[in-house]
Amino acid sequence: MALSADVIYESASDVVQAVPAVNGDILYAGALIAINADGYAVPWADTTGNNFMGVCMRQVTGDTSASPVPEAEINTAGMILKKVTIVNASSQTDVGILCYATDDNTLTLSSTSNVNAIGRCSRWYSSTTCDVDLFTPTEYMSLQF
After folding, report:
1. Burial class of 84 by CB neighbour count within 10 A (0 to 12, 13 to 18, 19+)
2. Under 8 Å CB-to-CB from 13, ≥6 apart: which residues?
């Protein structure tokens, strides 16, 4: 039905999203975070059903029996991780290459089995040290297998 009066929506930040943390897991500040198939925030892993969200902003331990359930605060802005190690990176030619992650802290240029790339190498410094331009959740979802 069309509006016939003003509506003021409750809104949230488009940079930080709060998501209930999965029971029993510790999500550390700086960890790459996924939303699992059940809708909970979990440490990133090469697991079917995981969708990349971003980087955890503070440590949280999941406890789904707590009231309220602890929430992971996730930077979903597609931030750039500066001077991180990327497995298999080796030269300037890696700039622009898709970047994957095998866990919440291990970046690689090798594709994973169950999940998509989480960003791209945006700068090479030396050896395996690079910048990674992380995808936003929307960008990640656009890469469906």
Report:
1. middle
2. none
Residue 102 — left, alpha, or beta (φ > 0 → left; ψ -120 to 50 → alpha)?
alpha
Torsion on CA atoms 71, 29, 115, 98, rounded to nearest 10 = 140
Residue 122 CB coordination number (10 Å): 18
Q: Could you tell me the CA-to-CA distances from 31 to 50, 72, 135, 142 in Å, in that order? A: 14, 11, 15, 22
* R_g of the chain computed on alpha carbons: 17
CA dihedral of residues 120, 125, 128, 133 (deg, nearest 10): -20
Angle (CA) 104 108 110, round 5°: 125
- What three-state secondary structure class fits 104? coil
The phi and psi torsions of 26 (rounded to 5 degrees) equal -100, 125
pLDDT per residue as tens digits for the range 85-144: 999 999 999 999 999 999 999 999 999 999 999 999 999 999 999 999 999 999 999 987
Q: Return contacts of 123-127, CB within 8 angstroms, 24+ apart.
A: 123/95, 124/89, 124/91, 124/92, 124/94, 124/95, 125/83, 127/89, 127/90
